[in-house]
Amino acid sequence: MEESFDDCFAIRQAARHVSQIYDRHLASVGLTITQFSLLSRLQRTGPMTMKQLAETMRMQRTTLVRIIQLLRRNGLVLSEAPLADARALSFSLTSEGKARLEAGWKHWHAAQAEFEHSFGGPRAGAARRTVCHDRSPVTRAERSSSLPQLRQFTGAISRRYFFNPISAYAHIVIMSSTPSTVAPAGAAQAGKPAARIPWMLLAIITVLAVLALAASYGFFVGRFVESTDDAYVGGDVTVMAPKVNGFVADVLVQDNQFVHVGQVLVRLDARDYDARLAQAAAEVSSAQAAVTELQAKKSLQLATINEQAAEVRASGAELTRSAADQLRYRELVKDDAVSN
Hints:
Elements: H1 7-26, H2 33-45, E1 48-49, H3 50-57, H4 61-73, E2 77-80, E3 90-93, H5 95-119, H6 121-135, H7 140-161, H8 165-177, H9 185-190, H10 199-220, E4 248-251, E5 266-268, H11 271-334
Antiparallel strand pairs: 1-3, 2-3, 4-5
Helix pairs in contact: 1-5, 1-7, 2-5, 5-6, 6-7, 7-8
């Protein structure tokens, strides 16, 4: 019995790994490739409703609603109700969204260049045309002819980015099912008998590899994954608080941005503290004026004290002179030198 290959799983797995390349480059502007594609679509087409976006982006509406809500909170997308139907919201880019999209283009081109450099420009272009052709209304024969090319594309990405026994097995099945590698029936009968593949051993190895991958995925990725299948958050949450109270004036970092020691994260409103500082400076100036006044009073009192001391000394001298005159007059009176 001919072995089959899960094309849907292979394409989803390849798409996830390719998306990680674009997400890594677009993280510099705080966007994912899904958010960037949505912003780009709104820029090209103008305002669109949720239904139009879901059909154009080929996304589930629940996933699309979560992405739109995040973009609205970040001020990148604006929702408004048209006059014709107030129940149907239309979404368009804000000025901040246009600026973020413009800043992300160079990172998108860098991701594009990295993928085409590692995968090959002609092969990437051929796979892109195959995927776009496979989404268009074509005949059954045309779709069947494009399927082997699409399988080669997913198998090559698997070997390039996450090579393991499963991808090796996928490569064997892909190449065996490609028309270019299938030998004619006459040639198969004329040649030597084909070597039988030990399917049981290969199945055991595949199961063990799947279990190992599932365990590693659960340990390194799965425990950080939230309920959505479109993004995941991993890391430790650190609660930060300033040493002083105040209102936040500016936030100088973005979500999921790497920070360094000593980097300024938020800037508080300093107007209240400036008013308190001015009040404290006025109190210091008032206290200094009071000290100056007290020093002037001290100098005046010292001068008064010196004046009173001089008067005391003058009075003492006058008293001494008067006492001497009294003694002299008494002696003169005793000697009858003067009359009474």
